[in-house]
Structure formats: structure tokens, C-alpha cells
């Protein structure tokens, strides 16, 4: 954006779980936090598109459980992080963002986007935004319509109308169309009037709130109560949980865009993909001469047009064509690329059987770093723990387990009841059941240690916190 462009508030929606990219993307650590389209996490990549003159610091609306992941990946960007107590689709999230943005002025222009889309042509994206901003100021809700490159059935479509007077590059919206079948999608592409619905919107806070008041007044009233009752701590805005829970789960498309008289569209070709499936991931990935896209330690023999991704384990593929193979430390997915949309059925089946792999990774992220389970046995468990420089765990105790910590690298300060103990590499400490303890990393490098737990119950909920830097109960 140029220095003369109006100030634009990027609003990043980061509430998705990316189920169709299982086993990499799971509820505990969904796809927006992974580096998929570049070497940066998708959330970080999205925020970087809206930096520099003309842009305000971003506002991110996310699941409360992901708040520290968002804060870490957007460190130093001045992000305002709005926490949803429960997922309620895009309309309540956007309503909350518009109400909060209104505090800076009703004419504030919001650029609303998802945290997990890939865009390869940044100059083209900014040209589309430059066309949309004057239309937003004129009272329009502008969406970006992607010129289709194939008869895609996984996207909704927008039928574009005539160009709006005085707004070059901006067209009226004739109608929104649900995800079509293959035959209808082919007709749309051949006809030239239909565009993929990217889910990006540009509008002023005043216009969004006016149209929500017109079409979904009950929803807006509920979200207004949640915002009025919000608590603010650090960079977080915690929406009132009881109020927000009453909001209906509805998308902004259904709530406003399909009903408003103020919708408009900017047709664009920006190299966009929502990376909504492993097939879409294969489409945007670099490929070898045989059409294979690989990531990690992978060896192929006579494979063609495959996507193979390993997060650490050597993965060999022989004689497969149009296949997807994804390997993590606790799960493997293998399928034909044409069945990419059916991964959600697999995840639903795993959930129905109570398999934690459906939603959780072996590695669990915390505000101070992360841990991962190595061995789980009868009355014992072994974990690897990594603590960021300057970070500390909560002051806590356990009723059912004792712990033994062995420092592998770095330095730890351990509080054990009234003692304070300095641990260096290859040193250890025993924490008997019931003792009050805490660990922190005072050094300049990550602290890595092995934790051995023993006891009658080893669940993560056996924690009584007395003090916590990060505001956890």
C-alpha cells in the first residue's frame, strides 16, 4: 500500500481447525500455525501481507486455546488478539472485530481475511485492495473474487455484475452460489461471469455494523454484550463467555453477504488457494519432473503425481500414482489424491472411537514452550520438555504423581518448596508427590530436559496452580 492510502485494519480470522489436512493439522495445532506455503507459519505469512505504510497493527480473532500460539507467532507486530470462548463461525467473529474497531472510529476500514490461505502474487493482492478501499469508504462490503483456473467444487462462487460507476475494478455482485457439482462448476468456468469466493472482505466498521443490525440484529446484540463484558489483559481481549455462547453459529456469507444490497466484488488473480485439502496442497507445491511434491526425508521410486510429506521418519514410496502420503510421529495418512475431501470422514471416525490422535499431537504447546510424550507405561510416563529463554512454568503441585527432571541442555532454576536449586546440563532434581514446585529458564538458549513421572494418575489435569505468569487457572 502507498503512503497516501487510507489506514486499513487487517482482521485475521484464526478459528479454523483444518480437519482435511489431518494428520498434520489438528484442533490442538491447526494448519494456520504450520509452514505450508513457505518457510513461515501461515498466520505469520498472512500478517506480513498487511505491513507497512497504510496498515494498522493487526487484529486477530482466535480460539482461546490458541492464544499463546498466536501471540508467539505475531510477536513484535503489536497485534490485538480477540479470544473467542467458543467457535461460532465467521459472523459473530466479524461482528466482534467491527465493534472493537469502531472504538478507533466508525470509518475505520477493515480488511478481513482467514489466517490459512496461500497467496503467491502480493503486488496483485495490494492492487485489488487499493481498488476495494474506495468502495468500502463509499459504503460497500467488497469481497475479492478469484478468477477460476479449474472447475473447482470445493469453493463457493460469486456471479459478478456490471462495474460500479466511479469505482474502477469494482463490480456489483449479482449473487452468491453454494459449492456446485462438477457439471455446474464447469459451466461457471466456461461462462466467465463466476468467480471463486475467497472469503476476504473489505468494509468500514460502520457499514458492517449497519448491515448486521439490518439482517441479524439479535446476533449483533449478543456480540455487543460479549464485547461490553470483555476483559483485557496483556494483548488479549477476552470476550464474555456467557454472552458469546448465546450467539448463533452462522457465516458472514449467510448472515450478510447473500442478503445485503451493498455487496461488491473485485475480480483478481493473485495466486490464491485456501489449502483446504491435501489435493490443494499438491496443486500449489513445487514438483519434480514426475509431478511429485515432497517434504522431509522422503525417497521415491517410480512414483508419479504424488504428495509425500514426512515430519521426521524416513518415508519410502514405490510405484504409486496420484497418491497422498503424510507421516507424523504418531499417525500416517495414505490415500488417493481424488479422495482428499474425505479426510474429514476419517477424523470423524477417529473421534467417534475416542482416539486422541484425531485432535491432539504428541507435542503439546504451552506459553512457555512445549512438551512431547516419549514413553507411557503402567504408572510411569517419560516426556521431553523445552522451555523458551526467560520463560517459566506455573508454581504448582500434583496430588497423584512425583517427578524427576534431568537437564539435557541449558540451565534451569527450580523451586522445590522452600528451596531454590540451580541445575546445569546432566544434573537432576527429584520432586516428591505433593511438593510445591516451579521451573524457569534464566538463560539465553532453550532449556531442554527429560521428565520422568511416576504415580497412580498421570493426567494433565492433576495440577494445582498457585501462581502463573500467563493467567491460567
From TrEMBL:
CDD domains xrefs: cupin_PMI_typeII_C (cd02213), GDP-M1P_Guanylyltransferase (cd02509)
All residue ranges annotated as the MannoseP isomerase/GMP-like beta-helix domain in the record: 300-350
One Gene Ontology MF term: mannose-1-phosphate guanylyltransferase (GTP) activity
Keywords tagged on the record: GTP-binding, Isomerase, Nucleotide-binding, Nucleotidyltransferase, Transferase
Chemical reaction(s) catalysed: alpha-D-mannose 1-phosphate + GTP + H(+) = GDP-alpha-D-mannose + diphosphate
E.C. designation(s): 2.7.7.13
Keyword field contains Nucleotide-binding: yes
Database matches in InterPro entries: GMPP_N, Man1P_GuaTrfase/Man6P_Isoase, Man6P_isomerase-2_C, ManC/GMP-like_b-helix, Mannose-6P_isomerase_type2, NTP_transferase_dom, Nucleotide-diphossugar_trans, RmlC-like_jellyroll
Chain ranges of the Nucleotidyl transferase domain: 10-288
Residue span, Mannose-6-phosphate isomerase type II C-terminal domain: 354-468
Keyword NAD: no
Class of the enzyme per the UniProt entry, highest EC level: transferase
Record-linked PANTHER family: MANNOSE-1-PHOSPHATE GUANYLYLTRANSFERASE
Family membership noted in the UniProt record: Belongs to the mannose-6-phosphate isomerase type 2 family.
Protein name: mannose-1-phosphate guanylyltransferase
Origin species: Roseomonas nitratireducens
Classification lineage: Bacteria, Pseudomonadati, Pseudomonadota, Alphaproteobacteria, Acetobacterales
